[in-house]
Each structure stands twice: as C-alpha cells, then as structure tokens.
Write a structure and sequence with these properties.
Number of strands: 0
Shape: rod-shaped
Largest sheet: none
Order of helices and strands: HH
Helix content: over 70%
Radius of gyration: 23 Å
Length: 95
Amino acid sequence: MNPELEVDADALRRAAAGVAAGGDRVGAATGDEPPVPLTPRWAAADAALLAGAAARGQLALIGAGIDETARRIGEAAAAYELADARAVTRLRLTR
C-alpha cells in the first residue's frame, strides 16, 4: 500500500461546481411543464397530470441528490487541504 496520496483540491472544487451545475439543470427541468389544454378534455388527461407530477417529484429528488454529491465533493477538497495543512505544521515542528 502506498501511503502517499496526491489530491488536486482545485480540480475537486471545479468538479464540484460542474456537478452542482448539472444538479441545477436537473432541478430546473421540474419547472418546464407544458400547459394543460383545457379542450378537448381527453380521458387520459388526469393520468397524464399525475404522471407529470410524479416525474417532477423524481427530478427534484435526483437534483437534490446531485447537489448533495457536489457539496460532499467540496467538503472532501476542504478536508484534504486541512489535512495537508496539519501535516505541514507537524513537519515544521519536527525540525
């Protein structure tokens, strides 16, 4: 096992921003609802409305999950930087 691990925190932050942007796009898709035609009233109109509401709910959950993933990636970048800072401090104290 190699104890050395290199992490590019800036790349992680960029990745987190890209993931968050994707989550925003997924969440925004919940607002793209076409207008419901009032006439003629089709027999499947109520079922279509329910299906649309279910799909919007699922998209909202997926978008929230993606946003949570982006947040965790950002936290990981911060944790790696904090660990590096602690290691630098320990190394300086040994001199």
